[in-house]
Design brief:
The structure holds two protein chains of two kinds. In chain A, helix 2 packs across helix 5, helix 6 packs parallel to helix 8 and helix 12 packs parallel to helix 15. Chain A is built from 15 helices and 19 strands. In chain A, helix 2 links the parallel strand 3 and strand 4. Chain A is of the alpha/beta class. Helix content of chain A is about 30%, strand content about 15%. In chain A, the strands form five sheets. A five-stranded parallel beta sheet of chain A has the order 5-4-3-6-7. In chain A, strands 17-16-15-18-19 form a five-stranded parallel beta sheet, covered by helices on one side. Chain B has eight helices and eight strands. Chain B is globular. The chains are: A alpha/beta, B alpha/beta. At the A-B interface, helix 2, helix 3, helix 5, helix 10 and helix 11 of A face helix 4, helix 7 and helix 8 of B.
Chain lengths: ~475, ~200
């Protein structure tokens, strides 16, 4: 499983792709087998309806796992859900899963959480697998060396019915990040810088492989943060080659292979990394050693600058379309060109989402908040990514740190990342958010989102304006 | 899926780049479990602005959307496609599309017409200048034409995709012809691979 029969060196993406082709024919997309299909309440109801209409079954309920995440409230989860439409959608998920024999982790279940947090924590996400979900942040699972990508509801229906998906083979792109990250620079800053470099469409049509010493130095949680935001750079999938960190993370998890099967799996996983001499269709280099904390200023994740910087001048952009977009973004965000990022005050801080709600993210924020308090009048939410993350954080006493600092400590879910539940910004409210999208209205109508790392989110909550942890002591 | 061969109609110029699917249909609408009725939420927050192009009576009844670069980025929500089609759009013309949005469009029969930035700009100005301009998109031939404005171009589609669109083929049905291949593949999967529960 290194070079192919003809001795051609292959990339990680090539290997995973080629080992999942059920059928290949000239002029047709490859039919790929799907090893794991993750399902949530928002993009699945119409797919189940489609199955019923056509009288079809779920081919592999044993390779399908569902959870409730997008809609769930993060307070009072023992009480009936106030929003009847949300309540109905969650009910429909439970009914569909029961009807088609699919394992489902509803609100309150010990395994419930954001779909991209629970897959890895249960050991369901493993190297070399194909993973799909009706959610664009499925790219998260690529951190394990899986080929994982988001799909639409028609494709969800297709996977439910056939456990496969016809796909045109994407091009490959290497994002090489080398050098040691400076203190206070996090995986979130790495991926924000990558998106700033390639733009929102730079990865379109490509699978990204994140490579280089900076990426190797990241923990599994950090790699998940990086792969998670691949879609914000236009790439449906982002991957990191599996290594000892990957294996250590997986060993002993419920769904990880055990005993001789572990050895067998391990031997296979070690064949997956990109071969020496394999080429990519596109390569981008970034100096990890020179990175600093980043903050978005506009209305897409490519609108990003170092925290040390200023709000850019729309006139500095190339092309009328980009200048218009920047001017419109500044108007929406209520910002003036030239304003230092550090002088921008925020109303709300959101720590959570499939990008940054894992135990390490909570630890990083709590380390900043220990012995400090959020700025008076500022609203701060900490929303763990899953029930397990919440339980672990509480065992480590992190909930006490958050509460003492003035954060609200919530139940797991997607929460204010997309504001489908009651956690929303009010019009004009400005938020430092550890989530993945600063689109207009994403966190609530008229809300203004700035994407940051957990460490910057915590420091910003204390300072009341954008800040790094390092400057709080000054 | 309804077959789509030739689309002839007027267009709306949405001169914005990087239009994400959150703008096409807001997450509030995603709580619904139905597949219909999303047109009312299309570009919801932008439509509250009286000057937004969709509110311009000259563009009422248009069936083609001319959009800026990178249309349909972000979320995988197929609801964005349902909203565009429910509103009455049959095709979107842009110089680049989000990958997931493009797939969702094809799966629903909304034609993603990818043209060069020059053609995108030319169509955008032609339609802005003359809202009554008639545009013809021929899926079978892979062409987009606005004869009155002297614009004519081709757009790429895989032959397989073109066949699917013009015949309205359901992809699940196509795949199920190869069910025995899936059976064979499943036999060869290692026993240690994870299962649910």
């Amino acid at each position: 499983m290194t070079a192919d029969e003809r001795g051609r060196p292959r990339t990680l993406a090539d290997k995973v792709w080629e080992s999942h082709v059920i059928r290949s024919a000239d002029g047709e997309p490859d039919l790929l087998f799907v090893d794991l299909h993750l399902v949530h309440e928002v993009t699945s109801p119409q797919a189940f309806d489609g199955l019923r209409l056509a009288g079809r079954r779920v081919r592999r309920p044993d390779l399908t796992v569902a959870t409730a995440d997008h809609n769930v409230p993060t307070v009072d989860i023992d009480a009936p859900i106030a929003d009847p439409i949300s309540a109905r959608q969650l009910e429909v998920l439970a009914t569909n899963c029961a009807e088609f024999g699919i394992t489902c982790y509803p609100m309150g279940h010990a395994n419930q959480g954001i779909v991209h947090v629970i897959g890895p924590e249960l050991g369901l996400t493993q190297p070399g697998m194909t993973v799909v979900c009706g959610d664009s942040h499925t790219s998260t699972h690529g951190a394990f060396g899986a080929l994982a990508f988001g799909i639409g509801t028609s494709e969800v229906e297709h996977v439910l019915a056939t456990q496969s998906l016809p796909q045109w083979r994407p091009a490959t792109m290497a994002v090489n990040v080398d050098g040691e990250l400076a203190a206070g620079v996090t995986p979130k800053d790495v991926v924000l810088a990558v998106i700033g470099l390639i733009g929102t469409g730079g990865g379109a049509g490509h699978v990204i492989e994140y490579r280089g010493s900076t990426i190797r130095s990241l923990s599994m949680e950090g790699r998940m943060t990086v792969c998670n935001m691949s879609i914000e750079g236009g790439a449906r999938a982002g991957m990191v080659a599996p290594d000892e960190k990957t294996f250590a993370f997986l060993e002993g998890r419920e769904q990880s292979p055990k005993g001789s099967e572990w050895e067998e799996a391990l031997a296979y996983w070690r064949t997956l990394p990109t071969d020496d001499g394999a080429t990519f269709d596109k390569e981008v280099d970034l100096d990890g050693g020179r990175l600093t904390p980043h903050v978005t200023w506009g209305t897409n994740p490519g609108h990003v600058v170092p925290l040390d910087g200023v709000v850019p001048d729309p006139d500095s952009f190339e092309g009328a379309e980009n200048r218009d977009a920047a001017a419109r973004a500044l108007a929406y965000m209520g910002l003036q060109a030239g304003t230092p990022i550090r002088e921008i005050a925020v109303d709300t801080v959101f720590l959570g989402s499939c990008t940054n709600s894992r135990i390490e993210d909570l630890r990083a924020a709590a380390a900043v908040l220990e012995g400090r308090h959020v700025r008076e009048g500022l609203r701060a939410l900490a929303v763990p990514g899953s029930r397990r993350v919440k339980v672990q954080a509480e065992a480590e006493g992190l909930d006490k740190v958050f509460r003492a600092a003035g954060f609200e400590w919530r139940e797991p879910g997607c929460s204010m990342c997309l504001a489908m539940n009651p956690d929303k910004l009010a019009p004009g409210e400005r938020c430092a958010s550890t989530s993945n999208r600063n689109f207009e209205g994403r966190q609530g109508r008229g809300g203004r989102t700035h994407l940051v790392s957990p460490a910057v989110a915590a420091a910003t909550a204390v300072a009341g304006r954008f800040a790094t942890p390092g400057e709080l002591d000054g | 899926m309804k077959p789509v061969v030739v689309i002839t109609g007027r267009a709306v110029p949405l001169d914005r780049s990087d239009v994400d699917t959150d703008q096409i249909i807001h997450a509030d609408w995603l709580k619904r479990v139905e597949r219909t009725g999303f047109g009312a939420g299309l570009f919801g927050e932008w439509r509250d602005d009286r000057d937004f192009v969709l509110n311009d009576p000259r563009f009422v009844g248009a069936t083609i959307l001319i959009a800026g670069h990178n249309f349909g980025i972000g979320s995988s929500r197929e609801h964005a496609v349902w909203a565009l089609m429910d509103y009455g759009f049959e095709a979107v013309v842009a110089s680049a599309f989000g990958d997931i949005f493009r797939n969702n469009s094809i799966n629903q029969g909304l034609v993603p017409v990818q043209v060069t930035p020059e053609i995108e700009r030319a169509l955008m100005s032609a339609v802005t200048d003359d809202p009554s301009l008639e545009i013809t998109i021929d899926v079978a031939r892979g062409t987009v034409e606005a004869p009155a404005a002297g614009i004519s171009s081709t757009f790429p589609l895989h032959e397989f995709t073109r066949e699917r669109l013009v015949n309205g083929w359901d992809e699940v049905g196509l795949t199920l012809r190869h069910e025995s291949d899936i059976d064979v593949f499943e036999q060869g999967r290692p026993a240690w691979m994870p299962v649910a529960g």
